[in-house]
Amino acid sequence: MIHTRRARVGIVGMGHFVYWPQFEGLVDELKQKQKIDAKYFRECEVVDLGFADDIDSSIVCLKKALAADLDALFIVMSTYITSQVVFPFAKYLRVPQILLALQPLEALDYSKTTTYMQLCNDDICSLPEFAGVYERLGAKKPYIIVETASNTERIAERISVYERAISAVAAFKYAKFGYLGHTYDGMYDMNTDPTAFAGCFGAHVKQLEICELVEYVHSATEAEVRARIDEIKSIFDIREPSNDPLTEYVHDADLELAARCSVGLDRLVEVHGLAALAYFYKGENGNRYEQIASNLIIGNSLLTSRGIPLAGEADLKTAAAMLIMSKVGGGGSFAELHPFDVRDDIVLIGHDGPHNINISNEKPVLRKLKKFHGKPGAGVSVEFKLKTGSISLLSCSVGGDGRFKLISAVGESMPGAIPATGNTNTKCRFSVPATEFVERWCAAGPTHHLALGVGDRSREISLFCDMMGIKHIDALGAPFDVI
What are the Cα distances from residue 23, in Å, to 16, 324, 371? Predict the structure, then answer.
């Protein structure tokens, strides 16, 4: 059901044709580097573009790259290479490009070194020349990985960071974001220009109508609904009311409605091939549209957990942040700042609505709410906290210049009880006091929602922003004076 493309990367080997008649067997030995390097890729589809050693062979490889519709290019620096070989890629291929210089030997045995051996280990020799050519052409600078080939764990880790960032970039390519309803009334920070969004991220915004969703909900078959109820019961811990008077028992009819809405939501996503969805519908007087819009939480959480993020209150920007967080490996749940706690020095971060249950610390809870605070309707809601350990926050906002920006921070999910209010809530601790974190976060100019994910994803997020040309602010990275 996932409607985002799998990232496709090209790998091309490069060498210097002048060496081949001078050193028998050298070209074959250098081409082996390309095969070894390709084995490091685990998440992306790899397209072997061949080996280029002069301008003509480079153009042949370039045409393969253009035909393959790549999301990134990895160039294997096998020995010294004249920059004519990289010129066609720097000039005509508009995707992120990474120069791989993985030297076979950790050090030369200088007393026994031959010219042949040096050429086999000249992986870094052309890096300055290549970098200078990108600079002179006005092309985007290449990324560079320099390691010894024996440092396999380090190489795998570094390439995996690139793969995750490239996967996030690729997720927006040709993607469709659904937009159902309208933003929550009065939230000025939430309003998003679909054309500006498409211009920044490259994804089309598809305007949807609630009546179409209602049709799919009502046409769900009894077999589909029963199967979805069984799935819900297997995934969630259905709880009795808590001390919050808004909670009550989850009845069979509540699960039946939530399951039916979930099936209908799946159908909406499938019909339109959506990569993500932002939604909000404010019904009146308990009509059927309001009833369905109020019972999407389970369905949108299941979809979010399958890699199709849904953002409540029609927050299109946070849908983008959630997709990024998902693709860089963090999962990504819909969240906002809740109360802070100076005794434990934490900030509660969570929300009602769409959540990624894959990153729950334990079996996620279902609670029935008599009303959703600030919203119409009632229904079953999802409650959990994130897995303990490192976490990442990501907010997508728009600056005064009208340009999109991403704001991130890394913290830690702490153990301990959370409010039993039918919302997600994670106790988040940061490298600065809780109160200072709030000040720093807000000073960066975020929207009030964010994608909350597991793990330290700062490298992937920074790399994604650089690849996409989007401004990135680390809320905890810049100097900040508390007055």
Answer: 11, 47, 78
